[in-house]
Design brief:
mainly beta; Immunoglobulin-like; six-stranded mixed beta sheet; five-stranded antiparallel beta sheet; about 0% helix; elongated; DUF6701; DUF6701 domain-containing protein
């Protein structure tokens, strides 16, 4: 204990977290003493059992090695509380846990608590994409959370000048409240966390990011933080986060082929999942699970005869390709009828696409037989 200007400062160490009482009195006047209840806190946390589950919105895609920008994926990890002597503080559970906002039911509070870094009661979630190849150069994509442009900028080893991309609607790195809200369970000084997160689509295509790094910097309300940081998300030369893992994210679309055929038959329509590879859209041969169900598509009438038809989509994509169909019109139209088939952006917002289907015409093709009659 030390005194300075009539103020005493002292440091107490306890082997575990919890509340304890301290009574102080002057030997000359013990009756004038005072007492207080104090709370011991951990010295630091460690991170373990990290995992990334891609395409967490689609149970059929469990085990996918990639995801689409704008699609949630789940991160999970454990935090363990320790004292200064590196002994687990098993009492850090229940009311002694000083994390609250990261598991709030309020979407705005929840997202802010997961994204904020260095603030008490926060997770410090962020992403960075090194290894982004541009021509013969290798770049790192940095995602900004600053309004109004929320820029993604590129730092390239060879000095290539890559134009930034923006997302005017808001930050790209967010916490998703679907398919379920973030969770936290503490027992014996160890907390198990999970959250669905996403990298929103920019206003124009970017990527693909094949080595996207996800990191966190948890800090409880007392300021207790991780002991080891191994990720530099802001690329300033100093590690400020701990790496949860690395994954692949792609800017995707669903190419819906234009189709035409008889008004007396069902009309098959080919579809193809594609992603931007930095130069062009290519087939995403890794997509073998996106469901092709009627609810994922919208039919809109365009011109000509009104067409009474419905979307009959079944199955899933296979190696990035698949097929949907329009049913045979319930009433045969007298002339040509055109409908637009679009992806429902409330169901698959990360795979936009549209195509045109025309009933009542036939495709042109090579002439098999021609006969001329002259009279």
């Amino acid at each position: 204990m030390t005194f300075a200007n009539g103020v005493a400062k002292f440091c107490l160490m306890a082997p575990d977290v919890g509340n304890f009482s301290v009574s102080l009195s002057d030997e000359a006047s013990p009756a004038d003493g005072t007492s207080s209840t104090l709370r011991a806190r951990p010295h630091h946390f460690t991170l373990s059992d990290t995992s990334i589950t891609q395409r967490s919105d689609l149970p059929a895609c469990a085990g996918s090695t990639f995801g689409y920008m704008g699609e949630p994926f789940r991160i999970a990890f454990k935090l363990k509380a320790w004292n200064q002597d590196n002994v687990p503080t098993k009492n850090y559970a229940g009311s002694f846990v000083q994390f609250a906002k990261p598991i709030s039911g309020d979407a705005a509070v929840n997202t802010a608590a997961w994204i904020n870094s260095a603030d008490p009661d926060s997770m410090g979630l962020w992403m960075v994409a090194p290894g982004y190849v541009v021509g013969s150069d290798t770049c790192t994509a940095k995602f900004s959370g600053n309004a109004p442009s929320h820029e993604t900028t590129f730092v390239c080893d060879g000095g290539s000048n890559v134009a930034p991309v923006n997302r005017t609607a808001g930050p790209r790195v967010v916490v998703s409240m679907t398919p379920e809200v973030p969770s936290m369970v503490w027992s014996n000084g160890e907390g198990t966390f999970s959250a669905n997160v996403m990298l929103h689509r920019a206003d124009k295509a970017d990527g693909a990011y094949e080595t996207l790094e996800i990191g966190i910097a948890p800090r409880d309300a007392d300021g207790v933080a991780l002991d080891v940081l191994d990720m530099d998300a802001d690329k300033n030369g100093a590690n400020e986060r701990a790496r949860v893992g690395t994954t692949k994210l792609r800017y995707g679309r669903l190419k819906i082929a234009n189709a035409h055929g008889s008004e007396r038959l069902p009309l098959p329509i080919n579809v193809q999942a594609q992603y931007w590879n930095g130069k062009a859209y290519i087939t995403n041969v890794n997509d073998g699970c996106t469901p092709l169900v009627p609810g994922n598509f919208i039919k809109e009438d365009r011109t000509g005869e009104s067409i009474e038809t419905s979307i009959a989509a079944t199955g899933t994509l296979s190696a990035g390709t698949g097929r949907i169909a329009l049913s045979k019109p319930t009433q045969t139209p007298a002339g040509k009828g055109v409908v637009t088939i679009k992806v429902d952006d409330t169901k698959l917002p990360y795979l936009p696409g549209a195509g045109t289907a025309t009933f009542g015409i036939y495709k042109s093709g090579p002439v098999i037989y021609r006969r001329e009659l002259h009279y």
